Amino acid sequence: MRDFFLTHEDRAFRTEVRAFLSRELAPNVDLIERDQDFSAQLAIVRALGQAGYLKLMFPALYRGALPKPGLTHAVIVSEEAAYLNYAFETTIATALSCAYPIHRFARDSLRERYLLPILEGRSLGSICMTELSVGSDSAGMETRIRFDEGSREWVLSGLKRYISNASKADVYIVWGVTDPDVPPQKGLTAVLIPAHAKGLSFPRLYDFMGRRGSIVGEVSMDEVRVPEENLLGEVNGGFNIMLTAFNFERVILGGSGLGVARAAFEIASQHAQSRVSFGQKLGQKQLIWDMIAQMSWKIDAAELLTCRAAKMYDAGIGGKDLMREASQAKLVATETAVFCTDRMVQILGGDGVTRQYGKAEQLYRDARTLPIVGGTSEMCKYLIAAREMPSIRLNL
């Protein structure tokens, strides 16, 4: 990586994080991938929290050496973690995606109860949006949230699926419809549910082809009741919280994509420089150097877009003003991860699809999730086009 837009402090921070993860995460990647040992992940999460790396997005709580911590540095942590193991990066990114709305929109009492434990690595968070008929489009959301005036409680019923950290999180942010008579963008509400809430269950955990070791499953709510104070933001204000959370998540996913792409590129370029075929190093063949060149410029482009979006956020730009740039970062970085892992396997040949010859096949499986999670590539393209053509109403 060239780190074009990073400062001296940013680069020193990357070196520090890389050394930390080499000590804490690298020795455990086999436990996560092969044995799917979630306890190993929890131990590393605790270490990250104790080191202060989960507080980078929350300057008032951060106590590290960086003078101005922010999303730029959270992206660096994401990239370096995904470079070693994307499943683990999913766990911490999901927890931060939960912590972020709690910090921005929760009452003080909820922040004290749920935010610090996540940021100190003592607990996990989760966000619940996706349903059977709801992915990037929230219009078909069936989860219902109503307010019981008698008990002063929020009552939630519905089923969410493809939820990271399902059954392992200590707190869940759930989006649901509070007013079905208005357009979905005006009738969604977000509420916090603690893991011990009566009526909360996890009917199924999924077995993915990639990200082995991460926990993803269903979250069911059967008349779950939580106190009035568990509301995030305002009633029917959930769409704005969702938009803000998606911007944050998409920039973080830019870092995830960069980490996976970089790992694949290094494997491919090293193999091309060492493997001899028909009397020549692979890298001397035009078709191979074409692949290496394309991987190189795509990674640089993804890095530039991701760094720009993170720096914009750190400069105070957010909401719809960051939507285009966050979507570009997520789109290009995650598609680059897929491209680089595909070309890596092609360059390695049989070694690229065999577990006995290293992590190439794992990277290939892991990367395919990236253009889907956090808003599909198609959704990102729509958001980009919508900002570029403001006078035209685009149909999904």
UniProtKB/TrEMBL annotation:
Chain ranges of the Acyl-CoA oxidase/dehydrogenase middle domain: 127-224
Acyl-CoA dehydrogenase/oxidase N-terminal domain boundaries: 7-121
Family according to the record: Belongs to the acyl-CoA dehydrogenase family.
Keyword annotations from UniProtKB, A to Z: FAD, Flavoprotein, Oxidoreductase
Cofactors named for this entry: FAD
The UniProt record lists the keyword Ribosomal protein: no
Classification of source organism: Bacteria, Pseudomonadati, Pseudomonadota, Alphaproteobacteria, Hyphomicrobiales
Gene3D superfamilies: Acyl-CoA dehydrogenase/oxidase, N-terminal domain (1.10.540.10), Butyryl-CoA Dehydrogenase, subunit A, domain 2 (2.40.110.10), Butyryl-CoA Dehydrogenase, subunit A, domain 3 (1.20.140.10)
Residue intervals of the Acyl-CoA dehydrogenase/oxidase C-terminal domain: 236-387
Protein name stated in the entry: Alkylation response protein AidB-like acyl-CoA dehydrogenase
Stored InterPro entries: Acyl-CoA_Oxase/DH_mid-dom, Acyl-CoA_Oxase/DH_mid-dom_sf, AcylCo_DH-like_C, AcylCo_DH/oxidase_C, AcylCoA_DH/ox_N, AcylCoA_DH/ox_N_sf, AcylCoA_DH/oxidase_NM_dom_sf
